[in-house]
Amino acid sequence: MADIQSTSASSPIVVRRRDYRPPDWLVPTIDLDFSLDPARTIVRASLSVTRNGGHDRPLRLDGDELTPIEVKVDGRALGPGEWSIEQGALVIPLPGPAHQVETVVELAPEQNSKLMGLYASGGLLCTQCEAEGFRRITFFPDRPDILSRYSVRLEADQARYPILLSNGDPTEQGELPDGRHWAKWIDPFPKPCYLFALVAGDLACNSESFVTMSGRAVKLGIWVKEADLPRTSHAMQALKDSMAWDERVYGREYDLDVFNIVAVADFNFGAMENKGLNIFNSRYILADAETATDADYDGVEGVVAHEYFHNWSGNRVTCRDWFQLSLKEGFTVFRDQNFSADMGSHAVKRIEDVRVLRAAQFQEDSGPLAHPVRPESYMEISNFYTATIYNKGAELIRMIALMLGPDRFRAATDLYFERHDGEAATCEDFIRAMEEGGRIDLTQFRRWYEQAGTPRVRASLTHDPITQSVELVLEQNTPPTPGQPDKAPLAMPLRAALFDRHSGRSSGETLLMLTEEQQRFTFNGFAVAPVLSINRGFSAPVIVETSRSQADLAFLAAHDDDPFARYEAMQQLMVNALVGRVAGQEVDETAVIAAIRDTVNDPHLDSAFIAEAIRLPSEAYIGDQMVQVDPDDIHAARDALQRRVGKELEPLWRDVHARTRANGFSLSAAAKGARKLRNSALIYLVASGAVDGPTVAFSQFDEADNMTERQSALATLANDRSDEREAALDIFYNRYRDDALTLDKWFQTQAFASHPDTVDLVEELAGHPDFTLANPNRVRSLFGAFAGNQWAFHHRSGKGYRLVADCIIALDKLNPQTAARLVPPLGRWRRFDEERAALMRGELQRILSQPGLSKDVTEQVSKSVE
Ligand code: ARG
Ligand code: ZN
């Protein structure tokens, strides 16, 4: 594999999957010694290196912004002519088959604004290494197929950094003169360097114990600032539940004596699965009723599970190279999705996951940054932590699991874990284990890993009254994506059922395997044309096109026994009405209103499902259904339909809002469902135009004993001008100004508001004293939310584009990884009218013309601008 170096933006190196070569040198052990200090940290590394195969190539140790202070081989200090630096890497010619190499470097964690490598966050020192941050800490062959045993000694000022943590198990500790102390950690499991971590700081611990299936006691610790301790109980429960679930469902047991989690305030993404020492964005650890919404609670549970599950899918079995990233991420997302479904509602979890897939992955797959689940090349691997690798990757595993059924899937994952334990594996290894353990041929299925783009499946049903049969014709095609003009047909499992329109029942579900470009399926015994329910449970990650009438959709919305299909029928009903409105066509909306009313009144449905089903599709999703997105018309259409549903069913919304009012806070499924439904009712009630709308919303805001109701009332108020809006925003700010995670919501709610002045407000908020580019959560809550607000971001003045581009340019100098995440919304210019497209491209060009642009932003912008 070509080494990936930090390089100047003008000549970004492209890394290709087919260039993979096994490493020249292996590193069986590494001893690290850190003398920690925010301004000046000294890192001494001692590596045992062994030549891998017969070659005479030098040892090459990656480095990024590192200068060696000392280089020793087998105890002898090398002179300046005995090593060299090439593109940041330390290159040392070595004579023998095995040597001991020592290096010393100096770091300044407090200067590290990229938040990769060793950095300072709110008085802590912590690390982030995946994907290529370890090379910012010490010289090392920074690639995941080098597995080493780590022993780590940490030394720091005892008063400032009383807690010293690293991977594995703690072994010794002691005190030193000058108020310093030290601790030693040994990780018995060989691991790639991206899983290395250390934390030093003044932390308090929520400590509990878990007894594994073989009876071993594991000490669990969640480390946070003292004041945050009361907010860690949900995360702790999630951790214990995850450990038990992985034993029960996959037979996977935890393998060290301690498992630590640390929450940090400044973090580039969600969390990191470092062996035995997970490091989390604090937003995925801290939760209490005062500050966390139900969605936040679910986020904590899901991310804690995700990182814990990586201990097997990621750490015990890791990736050979970064092209295999979905091997661990897709599989682990699949595992955390199923865990969350088991902990709550399968139906609602599936709906939420599909909504995310469509919003993030389908958009990605239809734009300039589309790439396969196993990409062929990259400039900057950080740009490939995408919805495609994660969420589409999870859908591929889901399809395999569906085709195998639970028992064979379990046999196949058992084989995978056994066969590759302690190895750096590939997606191909995983597929083979599925084939052998699950007794299935996945030859054609492999294309899912190679082809980008969302397949479209056209389904048409014809009924023959003479033979009393129906014929279902399925046709698939996958549109071209960058570098892939022609696509081959994919193998996809489609769950389907045919419903009798009189009894409202189906004769049962069948699993159709679509493998050809066009395929026909015949079903007998239908005197009357049935109604087709297809891709039930969203069994394949595709776009299904049918020509079902509004009446058929209304029928399914009332009768389908698959909750996802039922939700989907509702969505399609609404989409048809909304797209019709945008096109200026008369679409009968009474079916939509009736379906919403009947869904709310259906006594067999639970509240959480009802809330999902009656929610109008987002403006972005409506835009995705159209060749050219008109943000203003879409907003107007959705707003008008929302007002109509609000007005026509006003008494219903009043009633639902009143009867879902709780007495005391609980996290039970019923209580969460009630809150979700209450919020939908509030949205429609306010949309109805009832004069007391803002007052009702304000009282909900004011009286709520939980953040779910408080924030959703605030969000509803934020959409319109009213005195209540200003009052609520002020109260919220003053109540939470000292709590960063909650203040994020204040920024986010305003940036996401459907308010005509949002774009100006965002500009103002970017200058607010509490706004900072140094904290990724804050940046995402303002600019991330804004760029996802279709109507506001695409303001025809182009001001929204300029604001986001300004942010990218400024942030790139501090934190390129987080800056690059803001590029994709600007890259979707092909989907908009000429004026908007020109403005969007103009901003992309302006970004690209900045001197010293990072590799991260260069890759995203240059791919998007063409
Ligand atoms: N492995 C981590 C997770 O999904 C995420 C690491 C993201 N790294 C990055 N460079 N974006 O759990
Ligand atoms: Zn992950």
From TrEMBL:
Domain annotation Peptidase M1 membrane alanine aminopeptidase: ranges: 235-446
SUPFAM superfamilies named in the record: Leukotriene A4 hydrolase N-terminal domain, Metalloproteases ('zincins'), catalytic domain
Xref: CDD domains: M1_APN
Gene Ontology molecular functions: alanyl aminopeptidase activity
Enzyme class: hydrolase
Residue span(s) of domain Aminopeptidase N-like N-terminal: 100-195
Domain Peptidase M1 alanyl aminopeptidase C-terminal intervals: 551-865
Catalytic activity: Release of an N-terminal amino acid, Xaa-|-Yaa- from a peptide, amide or arylamide. Xaa is preferably Ala, but may be most amino acids including Pro (slow action). When a terminal hydrophobic residue is followed by a prolyl residue, the two may be released as an intact Xaa-Pro dipeptide
Keywords for the protein's UniProt record, in alphabetical order: Aminopeptidase, Hydrolase, Metal-binding, Metalloprotease, Protease, Zinc
NCBIfam families: pepN_proteo
Family: Belongs to the peptidase M1 family.
Name recorded for this polypeptide: Aminopeptidase N
The species this protein was found in: Sphingobium agri
